[in-house]
Design a protein that fits this description.
With 271 residues, the chain is an alpha+beta fold. The protein folds into 4 domains: 66 residues, no CATH class; 105 residues, Tetrahydropterin Synthase, Chain A, CATH 3.30.479.30; 51 residues; 38 residues, no CATH class. Helix content is 50%, strand content 24%. Strands 3-2-5 form a 3-stranded antiparallel sheet. It has a 3-stranded antiparallel sheet with strand order 6-7-8. The N and C termini lie far apart (155 Å).
């Protein structure tokens, strides 16, 4: 019994040491994250194995784990670039990206946790300057926004693809031109629109006139054919038919056969 108090202190120290070791060794990786293991006495960053996934892990207390977000992220960038004729253009863009999961160890070893600032953003700026420099301000303002966005994405992807970064999309948020240039382009676009509208009216009027000419020609041809077909015999036959129809009418009338100058019947009615 006298030895028990002497054993309490060593046992307490051992338990305390074990608790410290366990607390230093326990690690929980959250949702959408992954961990890169650094072995202090075992070769540094682990690059030949998959990163530590979500959940609870036990590691040696002298090792370290660097946590990375592996979900899709978004980064914004606002930059000044030059158009093909040397004018300053303000371009606002954002990128959807995420680190390549299987290469997370190499990303940490070669690029560090600041890979967005060191790799991704400079790549976006470089691609944007290259692409915008191929277009005029008018193209940037009006018709080429989608093409610019696609080209910036493709050029940025070519740069970061072998840098362990997965680029999902580039979005061009805004293209701002100098105000005098923007106003001049708007005036030109308005003039072009007015000119197109005027040309449309001229074409419409010409088509309407052509339609009327065709209708008039058709009527003239019909009248000419009708006139050519109306012989004296046909007219007399038509007159006889009309006379027979009138003779059957209940109205009072007097029919004088063969009394008109062309030999057709004359019809004298009481009205």
């Amino acid at each position: 019994m006298e030895r028990l108090p002497k054993l309490v202190l060593p046992i307490t120290a051992i338990i305390f040491f074990v608790l410290i070791v366990v607390s230093k060794s326990a690690l929980t990786i959250g949702s959408g994250e992954a961990g890169v293991l650094y072995r202090t006495f075992g070769g540094g960053v682990v690059t030949d194995k998959a990163p530590l996934g979500e959940g609870f892990h036990l590691i040696m207390p002298w090792n370290k784990v660097y946590i990375y977000e592996v979900r899709q992220q978004e980064v914004f960038e606002s930059m000044k670039v030059l158009s093909s004729n040397g004018l300053d253009i303000q371009l606002d863009a954002s990128a959807w990206f995420q680190p390549k999961y299987e290469s997370l160890g190499k990303l940490h070893q070669e690029k560090s946790e600041k890979y967005k600032e060191r790799i991704l953003l400079p790549a976006i700026r470089s691609a944007a300057r290259s692409v915008v420099g191929r277009y005029t301000p008018e193209q940037l303002y009006s018709s080429k926004r989608d093409a610019i966005q696609k080209e910036i994405y493709e050029e940025t992807k070519n740069i970061v693809d072998d840098q362990y970064i997965q680029l999902n999309e580039i979005l061009v948020r805004d293209v701002t031109l100098p105000q005098p240039i923007r106003e001049a382009i708007e005036r030109k676009l308005n003039q072009e629109q007015a000119s197109l509208e005027y040309e449309f009216r001229l074409v419409t009027a010409e088509k309407e006139a052509e339609k009327l000419r065709i209708e008039a020609q058709g009527k003239a041809d019909a009248n000419r054919i009708l006139s050519a077909s109306l012989t004296d015999k046909i007219l007399r036959d038509k007159g006889i038919e009309a006379t027979l129809q009138l003779s059957n009418s209940p109205n009072s009338k007097v029919i004088v056969v063969g009394s008109s100058k062309d030999g057709l019947p004359l019809i004298l009615g009481n009205n």
